[in-house]
Design brief:
This protein is of the alpha+beta class. The chain contains 5 helices and 7 strands, in the order ββββαααβαβαβ. The protein has helices at 42-54, 60-63, 76-89, 112-122, 141-144; strands spanning 4-16, 21-23, 26-28, 33-34, 92-102, 130-135, 148-159. The strands form 2 sheets. Strands 4-1-7-5-6 form a 5-stranded mixed sheet. The protein has a two-stranded antiparallel ribbon with strand order 2-3. The structure holds magnesium ion (MG).
Length: 161
Protein backbone atom coordinates (compact mmCIF):
# COMPACT_ATOMS: atom_id res chain seq x y z
CA UNK A 1 0.00 0.00 0.00
CA UNK A 2 1.35 3.42 -0.86
CA UNK A 3 1.72 5.76 2.08
CA UNK A 4 0.09 8.77 0.48
CA UNK A 5 -3.11 9.37 -1.45
CA UNK A 6 -4.35 12.48 -3.24
CA UNK A 7 -7.89 13.58 -4.00
CA UNK A 8 -9.51 16.48 -5.76
CA UNK A 9 -12.92 18.04 -5.33
CA UNK A 10 -15.07 20.61 -7.08
CA UNK A 11 -18.40 22.21 -6.25
CA UNK A 12 -20.56 25.09 -7.38
CA UNK A 13 -23.69 26.64 -5.91
CA UNK A 14 -26.01 29.31 -7.23
CA UNK A 15 -26.09 32.79 -5.64
CA UNK A 16 -29.58 33.93 -4.67
CA UNK A 17 -31.18 36.58 -2.42
CA UNK A 18 -32.34 35.74 1.10
CA UNK A 19 -29.74 33.07 1.78
CA UNK A 20 -26.67 33.35 4.04
CA UNK A 21 -23.24 33.22 2.41
CA UNK A 22 -21.20 30.61 4.26
CA UNK A 23 -17.72 29.67 3.06
CA UNK A 24 -15.37 27.43 5.00
CA UNK A 25 -17.82 27.56 7.89
CA UNK A 26 -17.63 31.36 8.10
CA UNK A 27 -20.70 33.51 7.57
CA UNK A 28 -19.83 36.42 5.30
CA UNK A 29 -21.96 39.54 4.98
CA UNK A 30 -23.24 39.85 1.39
CA UNK A 31 -26.47 40.73 -0.38
CA UNK A 32 -26.62 37.23 -1.90
CA UNK A 33 -26.08 33.77 -0.45
CA UNK A 34 -25.62 30.25 -1.78
CA UNK A 35 -28.60 28.08 -2.61
CA UNK A 36 -28.52 24.43 -1.63
CA UNK A 37 -30.12 21.68 0.39
CA UNK A 38 -27.56 22.10 3.17
CA UNK A 39 -26.00 25.45 4.06
CA UNK A 40 -24.42 25.25 0.55
CA UNK A 41 -20.88 25.86 1.83
CA UNK A 42 -19.24 25.25 -1.52
CA UNK A 43 -15.67 25.33 -0.19
CA UNK A 44 -16.34 22.78 2.53
CA UNK A 45 -18.13 20.56 0.00
CA UNK A 46 -15.17 20.65 -2.39
CA UNK A 47 -12.81 19.69 0.46
CA UNK A 48 -15.10 16.83 1.53
CA UNK A 49 -15.18 15.46 -2.01
CA UNK A 50 -11.39 15.68 -2.22
CA UNK A 51 -11.06 13.73 1.04
CA UNK A 52 -13.46 11.05 -0.18
CA UNK A 53 -11.85 10.98 -3.60
CA UNK A 54 -8.40 10.34 -2.14
CA UNK A 55 -9.68 7.00 -0.83
CA UNK A 56 -12.05 6.28 -3.73
CA UNK A 57 -14.95 6.43 -1.30
CA UNK A 58 -17.41 8.06 -3.70
CA UNK A 59 -18.80 11.58 -3.35
CA UNK A 60 -20.71 13.59 -0.78
CA UNK A 61 -23.99 13.09 -2.64
CA UNK A 62 -23.70 9.40 -1.76
CA UNK A 63 -23.33 10.05 1.98
CA UNK A 64 -25.55 13.12 2.30
CA UNK A 65 -28.16 12.88 -0.49
CA UNK A 66 -29.91 16.17 -1.28
CA UNK A 67 -33.17 14.21 -1.29
CA UNK A 68 -32.79 13.32 2.40
CA UNK A 69 -34.67 15.81 4.63
CA UNK A 70 -32.16 14.98 7.39
CA UNK A 71 -29.57 17.17 5.65
CA UNK A 72 -31.86 20.14 4.97
CA UNK A 73 -30.08 23.27 6.16
CA UNK A 74 -27.24 21.11 7.51
CA UNK A 75 -24.09 22.78 8.85
CA UNK A 76 -21.49 21.57 6.35
CA UNK A 77 -18.83 21.53 9.07
CA UNK A 78 -20.79 18.73 10.75
CA UNK A 79 -20.74 16.83 7.47
CA UNK A 80 -17.02 17.54 7.11
CA UNK A 81 -16.38 16.10 10.57
CA UNK A 82 -18.23 12.93 9.54
CA UNK A 83 -16.15 12.55 6.38
CA UNK A 84 -13.02 13.12 8.46
CA UNK A 85 -14.09 10.30 10.80
CA UNK A 86 -14.51 8.02 7.81
CA UNK A 87 -11.00 8.85 6.61
CA UNK A 88 -9.50 8.34 10.06
CA UNK A 89 -11.37 5.05 10.52
CA UNK A 90 -9.52 3.76 7.45
CA UNK A 91 -6.19 4.68 9.06
CA UNK A 92 -5.48 7.92 7.18
CA UNK A 93 -4.77 11.46 8.25
CA UNK A 94 -4.69 14.70 6.31
CA UNK A 95 -1.26 15.94 5.25
CA UNK A 96 -2.53 19.17 3.78
CA UNK A 97 -5.38 20.76 1.91
CA UNK A 98 -5.17 23.34 -0.83
CA UNK A 99 -8.19 25.07 -2.28
CA UNK A 100 -9.39 27.90 -4.47
CA UNK A 101 -12.68 29.77 -4.18
CA UNK A 102 -13.83 31.52 -7.33
CA UNK A 103 -16.09 34.46 -6.53
CA UNK A 104 -16.49 37.79 -8.29
CA UNK A 105 -17.84 39.34 -5.10
CA UNK A 106 -17.60 39.78 -2.18
CA UNK A 107 -13.88 40.20 -1.65
CA UNK A 108 -12.83 37.13 0.33
CA UNK A 109 -9.35 38.18 1.37
CA UNK A 110 -10.49 39.61 4.75
CA UNK A 111 -12.16 36.28 5.58
CA UNK A 112 -9.49 33.79 4.54
CA UNK A 113 -7.79 33.58 7.93
CA UNK A 114 -11.08 32.91 9.74
CA UNK A 115 -11.97 30.22 7.19
CA UNK A 116 -8.60 28.49 7.55
CA UNK A 117 -8.82 28.62 11.35
CA UNK A 118 -12.37 27.23 11.31
CA UNK A 119 -11.59 24.33 8.98
CA UNK A 120 -8.34 23.56 10.81
CA UNK A 121 -10.18 23.39 14.12
CA UNK A 122 -12.82 20.98 12.79
CA UNK A 123 -10.16 18.77 11.18
CA UNK A 124 -7.73 18.98 14.10
CA UNK A 125 -5.04 20.48 11.85
CA UNK A 126 -2.74 23.46 12.06
CA UNK A 127 -3.96 26.41 10.00
CA UNK A 128 -0.85 26.13 7.81
CA UNK A 129 -2.13 22.73 6.65
CA UNK A 130 -5.21 24.39 5.19
CA UNK A 131 -4.55 26.48 2.10
CA UNK A 132 -7.36 28.70 0.84
CA UNK A 133 -6.92 31.03 -2.09
CA UNK A 134 -9.49 33.33 -3.59
CA UNK A 135 -9.79 34.58 -7.14
CA UNK A 136 -12.36 36.22 -9.36
CA UNK A 137 -13.31 34.79 -12.74
CA UNK A 138 -12.50 38.09 -14.49
CA UNK A 139 -16.26 38.60 -15.06
CA UNK A 140 -16.30 35.54 -17.35
CA UNK A 141 -18.92 32.78 -17.32
CA UNK A 142 -21.43 32.06 -14.54
CA UNK A 143 -19.14 32.80 -11.61
CA UNK A 144 -17.95 35.96 -13.33
CA UNK A 145 -21.57 37.11 -13.76
CA UNK A 146 -22.10 36.49 -10.02
CA UNK A 147 -24.61 33.74 -10.70
CA UNK A 148 -22.72 31.42 -8.42
CA UNK A 149 -19.56 30.66 -6.46
CA UNK A 150 -17.41 27.59 -7.08
CA UNK A 151 -14.52 25.99 -5.27
CA UNK A 152 -11.75 23.54 -6.07
CA UNK A 153 -9.77 21.54 -3.53
CA UNK A 154 -7.00 19.00 -3.36
CA UNK A 155 -6.24 16.96 -0.27
CA UNK A 156 -3.18 14.86 0.49
CA UNK A 157 -3.71 11.97 2.89
CA UNK A 158 -0.99 10.04 4.64
CA UNK A 159 -1.12 6.86 6.67
CA UNK A 160 -1.56 7.56 10.37
CA UNK A 161 1.35 6.56 12.54
MG1 LIG B 1 -22.42 21.32 -2.74
Amino acid sequence: MTAIRIGNGYDIHRLVPDRPLILGGVKIAHKLGLLGHSDADVLTHAIMDAMLGALSLGDIGHYFPPTDPKWAGADSLVLLAQVHELVQAQGWQIGNIDSVVVAERPKLKPHIKAMRDRLATVLNLQPDQVGIKATTNEKLDATGREEGICAYAVVLLQLSV
